[in-house]
Amino acid sequence: RVAILDFGSQYTRLITRRLRDLGAFGLVYGPGATAKEIGGPDLKGVILSGGPNSVMEDGAPDLDPAILALGVPILGICYGQQLLARNLGGVIHRSSRREYGKAMIRVLDPESLLFRGLETELQVWMSHGDHVEQAPAGFAITSHTRGVPVAAMEDRARRIYCIQFHPEVTHTQHGSKVLMNFLHVCGMKLDWNTGQFIEEKTRAIRKQVGTGRVVLGLSGGVDSSVAAVLLHKAIGKQLTCVFVDTGVMRKDEMAQVQEAFAPYDMTVKWVDARQAFLGALEGVSDPEQKRKIIGRTFIEVFDREAGQVQADFLAQGTLYPDVIESSGVGGAVLVKSHHNVGGLPDVMKLKLVEPLRELFKDEVRRAGLALGLPEDMVWRHPFPGPGLAVRIPGCVTAERVAILQNADAIFIEELKASGWYRNTSQCFAVLLPVQTVGIMGDERTYENMCALRAVTSEDFMTADWARLPHELLEKVAQRIVNEVKGINRVVFDITSKPPATIEYE
Ligand code: XMP
């Protein structure tokens, strides 16, 4: 294990990501973590991340000096380098101008293990205000740039390595090689893989839960499904999953999830709460109001079911990007009240089990496959908690939901048949309750419109519309109008996010 101390850089998660891609397991700790907290026989190295502060400011996060005495190699990146330089007697300069973006470094020392096997000129990514002007005693300066006298330095005897640039971002040429070199210095085996993650997590879950009972809200999405099978592997019957059919889910959702979980001997409560949700939504057309009602109803139903389980722990399929997004840094404007993290009521007062907290989405998918979940389940597009309610602008009725479910099922079926499902990030149909005139046979029709939404996206914060082939769109449109009573016109949405959002409400 490599311990990564997070001093607040936006790139910290990329460090863990790169390490894992290289086969090394990295665990992120807060900036105030002590040597005692991070130490242990499995600790092979420490990485100090970048951060937004200046080490010259009062109150800037500092490092427990005992970490330097742990005897494992240390890599300081950006703020991490400045912190080590300051604490060990170097000189830091506050630059009047921030250096941000690409820079060329010159490697000065062919003996440096960190730059082993690399060119002497490297393009790197810089993002800093302060820089190290003078290295502390015992440190060799191993690279510089035109503007920065110490772009990298190292104390070989103590195995402390420092770099001003960010090796974790892809803009840094051979950044992964620099990290790999550091891992070699640490003597890491580089054999971390999904199987090992599963074994380690299984042990950790057993240790945390002991003989307690765990309840998990199973939605059928990738995250909660993988969390469920992982917990099931670890604690078997101590886990109870609760699946709530909200009535605004995809067509035959509950049956599909039941089928996927049939091979596991897992305790799942299948709760049909369609009436409760549709009843509470009756006559409500405001988007935020709809979200709140669904959130509240879900909590009521889930609370009741979980109460019967008498659980000690609540398990959630929280992923690493959710952890970062919900940490509340900065004052982002509320556009939609998403409720993936922290959305459950305090009254539950259960301790949390979050076995996927360190993982990125693709790693969760790999874990899901390794745990035996079907491909279809693991590659599902995300589905919002408020479900089809935010895909039916205006009031939600059972009839409208049924129309939309049928149209959506056709779209998804054709996407899968044509191979486009895996090449897109999120696709769905939307029911626009706007009547337009059509003609079918000799009959005039006056029915709803259906919009098809298909996007590609890395993180769902921004998205582009997917360039689906015209033939595919034509087939979907034809099938929907012919097979779904209540829709007589299909349109394709070609708006990106921003300015539109992915969902319609
Ligand atoms: P937007 O519409 O904001 O969606 O571009 C971005 C991603 O978030 C999902 N989404 C939600 N998920 N509760 C959820 O659990 C919500 O209220 C919600 N609203 C949007 C959306 O499906 C997309 O993946």
Tell me about this structure:
One of its GO terms (cellular component) is cytosol. It catalyses: XMP + L-glutamine + ATP + H2O = GMP + L-glutamate + AMP + diphosphate + 2 H(+). The protein is α/β, with parallel strands linked by helices and 505 residues long. The chain folds into three domains: 2-186, 3-Layer(aba) Sandwich (Rossmann fold); 194-378, Rossmann fold (3-Layer(aba) Sandwich); 397-492, GMP Synthetase, Chain A, domain 3. Helix content is 32%, strand content 24%. The strands form three sheets. The chain has a nine-stranded mixed sheet, sandwiched between helices. It is globular and about 90 Å long. Residues 327-334 have low confidence and may be disordered. Bound molecules: xanthosine-5'-monophosphate. Xanthosine-5'-monophosphate is lined by residues 291, 336, 338-340, 382, 384-386, 426, 460, 497, 501-503.
